[in-house]
Design goal:
By secondary structure, this protein is an alpha/beta fold. 39% of the residues lie in helices and 20% in strands. The strands form three sheets. It has a five-stranded mixed β-sheet with strand order 3-2-1-4-8, sandwiched between helices. The chain has a five-stranded mixed β-sheet with strand order 11-10-9-12-13, with helices on both faces.
Length: 317
């Protein structure tokens, strides 16, 4: 049995799987909003302990634990750096050592979106393809690549599609730069824009829904409910996000010419097929080979894809 942890900006999803990647136990906890990397590591450990209990084991009984993390992941050093969507994680933290000590099991690290893309390639919506671009649309916008049947991570940070520039000197991105796709389409940036517009007096039901649902953030579910209610602010911010996704993903496609684009992440999975179709349509005007677009598909593994993909890291060599 192996463990997998998907570390996100709002949630930590943990699973325990068997050697065929069948689910034996799972748990989900909110990502801490205060503290620092050690606090996040303890929350990750707590989520996996809960998943292991559901599977009838202790974490120390696991063959290994894989982690899909945002930020710059250095698997050789066992560190994660600059995970800016997480509290206090501007520098470098020895996550492998810290988390392994809490769990009593060996830990392997990978980029969160790359492991989710690998899971879709091996087990999900991209099984029939040899070249795939994974676009995971959630708190931020991340990318993962499989080229000629093999994961491609470059020098360790390939696939950062959220930081493709879609507008020179455009909106400020959480990364600190301007004009990135994530500055328009990341859920965190969308939330920040909603707060700014609301402060200027524009009406929206987004925050009413957030409070009624007992949330502290504009989660994917909050956006989905506001869009179903045809809230003008939510509709406008979403249209802006789709336009940015279309331009950014098409630009990546023009370089890579992959067979398929897989749309996942919290927003992607929650909004589903209609929004996958909208992204595909928004890509079309920007594609160099517009008569031969890639297949654009919804991630098949849903919210568990990142954690199941992380568990693949812990497979015995």
């Amino acid at each position: 049995m192996r463990g997998g942890i998907d570390l996100g900006g709002t949630k930590i999803q943990a699973v325990v799987v068997d050697d065929a990647s069948a689910l034996l136990g799972q748990a989900r906890l909110p990502t801490p909003t205060e503290g620092g990397p050690a606090d996040v590591s303890e929350a990750m450990a707590a989520a996996l302990r809960e998943a292991a209990t559901a599977a009838g084991v202790q974490t120390g009984d696991l063959t290994g634990v894989g982690v899909g993390s945002p930020g710059a992941v250095d698997e050789a050093a066992g560190t994660v750096s600059s995970a800016r969507n997480l509290p206090g994680w501007e520098g470098t933290f020895a996550l492998r050592q810290d988390l392994g000590g809490r769990l009593g099991a060996p830990v392997k690290l990978g980029n969160d979106v790359q492991v989710a893309t690998d899971a879709e390639f091996q087990l999900g919506a991209a099984r029939e393809y040899d070249s795939v671009l994974g676009v995971f649309w959630g708190t931020g916008v991340g990318g993962g690549l499989v080229l000629d049947g093999k994961p491609w991570v470059g020098r360790g940070s390939a696939g950062e599609i959220g930081h493709v520039v879609v507008r020179r000197d455009g909106a400020r991105c959480p990364c600190g730069r301007r004009g990135c796709m994530e500055a328009y389409a990341g859920r965190g940036a969308m939330e920040a824009r909603a707060y700014r517009l609301h402060a200027r007096g524009e009406h929206t039901v987004l925050f009413d829904i957030m409070r009624r649902r007992g949330r502290e953030r504009l989660t994917s579910g909050v956006w989905a409910r506001a869009l179903r209610a045809e809230d003008p602010m939510a509709v406008a911010i979403m249209a802006r996000a789709i336009a940015a996704l279309g331009a950014g993903v098409a630009s990546a496609q023009n370089i890579l010419d992959v067979e398929a684009v897989i749309i996942g992440g919290g927003l992607g999975v929650r909004l589903g097929e209609p929004y996958v179709a909208r992204i595909a349509a928004a890509m079309q005007p920007h594609l160099f080979l517009d008569a031969r677009p890639p297949q654009v598909r919804l991630a098949a593994l849903g919210d568990l894809g990142g954690a199941v993909g992380a568990a693949l890291l812990a497979q015995p060599a």
